UniProtKB/TrEMBL annotation:
It is found in: Cytoplasm. Signal peptide: none annotated. The lineage of its organism: Bacteria, Pseudomonadati, Pseudomonadota, Betaproteobacteria, Nitrosomonadales. This is Bifunctional chorismate mutase/prephenate dehydratase. The gene is pheA. One of its GO terms (biological process) is L-phenylalanine biosynthetic process. Pfam families: ACT, CM_2, PDT. It catalyses: chorismate = prephenate; prephenate + H(+) = 3-phenylpyruvate + CO2 + H2O. Residues 273-350 form the ACT domain. InterPro entries: ACT-like_dom_sf, ACT_dom, Chor_mutase/pphenate_deHydtase, Chorismate_II_sf, CM_dom_sf, CM_II_prokaryot, G/b/e-P-prot_chorismate_mutase, Preph_deHydtase. PROSITE patterns: ACT, CHORISMATE_MUT_2, PREPHENATE_DEHYDR_1, PREPHENATE_DEHYDR_2, PREPHENATE_DEHYDR_3. Its main location: cytoplasm. It comes from Sulfuricella denitrificans (strain DSM 22764 / NBRC 105220 / skB26).
Length: 354
């Protein structure tokens, strides 16, 4: 057994040495590309293509997702050789939004916590951050209205998306005793855990705060309170886990958008997000959807929000399959521009890979 162990360990050492050489060779090529492109080496579509190829070519035994995450970190480190990407997110430290930012950009990116979603947009618009990550919808709690409203107002474009499985924890200050008097959490998380709270903490006041990490911070200061937040927040603020995975639905997932000064080029599997409003006449909404059906463009999302420009006027947020440069999508968008009272292309971007 000792001889076999030694042989395996020697093989692993040799493989590690070869991997080290290859990773550094890859980094040299990334640096060369950065010189040729004057530092503009981050391209969402290129990274999506690489990760898709890695998953398709993966022979195992490592899972496709595991291999893709490894390569995500390698690409992140290579990008950071010249200058790490700065990414603003809804803070403070330990939020699900930060977890989404790290999932998309890797640990080599510099994440910048912001006090609100509005601030994330402002930082990217002002050039204080290269990109921003904002929540847009949850499979249980629905759309994030603030993000949708700001997408109408900003010159920024959507250049990526992140899907994050969300597991909620009930947290409390370590050593605290007695009955909890308050539950702090983000409104979305309170909605995601509504039934669990009704069954287990029905008489406790629920207080909505700006983020789950803020809820964790408040609970760390108040022994009479508990918080609903993620594992990262629990670790960051040193909180005790009273209950795990308390979300009502086990497949609870939040979708985040990546915003920047540009959208993405064609990657081969893309989405396009747009916002539009109908003219005030019979059949106007039907007219808006007809071009998509005529050109065989599949709609994956339809969400309505008050337009804030007039009573009972609405903006429709739509996601479709395909890039705005795809022939069918381009034709449908051209027709929509003629039929809609208002149309804004929010961006085309690769479908989430990780």
């Amino acid at each position: 057994m000792d001889k076999e162990l030694s042989q395996h360990r020697a093989s692993i050492d040799a493989i590690d040495g070869e991997m080290l050489k290859l990773v550094n060779q890859r980094a040299e090529h990334a640096k060369a590309i950065g010189v040729l492109k004057d530092g503009a080496v981050y391209r969402p579509e290129r990274e999506a293509q690489v990760l898709r190829r890695i998953k398709e070519e993966n022979p195992g035994p490592l899972a496709d997702e595991t291999v893709a995450r490894l390569f995500r970190e390698i690409m992140s480190a290579c990008l950071a050789l010249e200058q790490p990407l700065s990414v603003s997110f809804l803070g403070p430290q330990g939020t699900f939004t930060q977890a989404a930012a790290i999932k998309h950009f890797g640990h080599a990116a510099l994440t910048r916590p912001c006090a609100s979603i509005d601030e994330v947009f402002r930082e990217v618009e002002a050039g204080l951050a290269d990109y921003g990550v904002v929540p847009v919808e949850n499979s249980t709690g629905g759309a994030v209205g603030t993000t949708l409203d700001l997408l109408l107002q900003t010159p920024l474009q959507v250049c990526g998306e992140v899907d994050l499985r969300v597991h909620q924890f009930l947290l409390r200050k370590a050593g605290a005793t007695g009955k909890a008097e308050k539950i702090y959490s983000h409104a979305q998380s309170l909605a995601q855990c509504h039934e669990w709270l009704n069954q287990n903490l029905s008489g406790v006041e629920r207080v909505a705060v700006v983020s789950n990490a803020e809820a964790a911070r408040l609970a760390a200061e108040d022994g009479a309170a508990v918080a609903i937040a993620g594992e990262a927040a629990a670790e960051h603020y040193g909180l005790e886990k009273l209950a795990e995975n308390i979300e009502d639905k086990p497949d609870n997932t939040t979708r985040f958008l990546v915003i920047g000064q540009h959208d993405a080029a064609l990657s081969g599997r893309d989405k396009t997000s747009l916002a539009m409003s109908a003219r005030n006449r019979p059949g106007a909404v039907y007219e808006l959807l007809t071009p998509l059906a005529r050109h065989e463009v599949s709609m994956t999302k339809l969400e309505s929000r008050p337009s804030h420009s007039g009573l009972w006027e609405y903006v429709f947020y739509v996601d479709v399959e395909g890039h705005r440069q795809d022939v069918k999508v381009a034709q449908a968008l051209a027709e929509l521009a003629d039929k809609a009272a208002f149309l804004k292309i929010l961006g085309s971007y690769p479908v989430a890979v990780l």
